[in-house]
Amino acid sequence: MRLWVGLGLAMSLAVPLVAQERGSWRPASKTAQSITGDVTFNGERMTINFFSLTVAEIRPLKTDEVLAAFDGADVTAGAGHLFRLSIPGDKRFLHKNTLCGSDETQWMATFVAGKELKIAFFSNAIPPVFTIEALGKSENLCGVYTYARY
Fold first, then answer.
1. Full-model pTM
2. Which tens digit of pLDDT belongs to each residue from 81-95?
3. CB-based burial label for 106 (10 Å; 0-12, 13-18, 19+)
4. Rounded CA gap, 48 and 53, in Å?
5. Structural domain boundaries enclosing 84
6. For the chain, what is the domain count?
């Protein structure tokens, strides 16, 4: 009986963390304003400036991974997740910009704290390594964007 209660409690706590990204977000950083515009999360779908795509949540990010990927993140106030996605390298957004140059965007890390969302996009089929050293040397980190809740 305790096992079922424990599992139920764990699942009830996990649902709000996964749902943190859901909803509409407006660009808050200059990078987001000039490249993506608004983003929306709706279940397994994400929309970037009217371009809709499927995203798959892979796993939550650990505290040290969030700190490595998102400088200055208050990990006590939010949670991060790693997603798999596919955005072609030739997909143009605002001002004819792409997310990862001519490379396909294949990974997305998010961090939500209150009314702020940070997104890091990555190219390469291999999942990104979330350490300060690895991200500092990474040629696959395409950019980090900041958004605010509508």
1. 0.86
2. 999 999 999 999 999
3. buried
4. 8
5. 2-149
6. 1
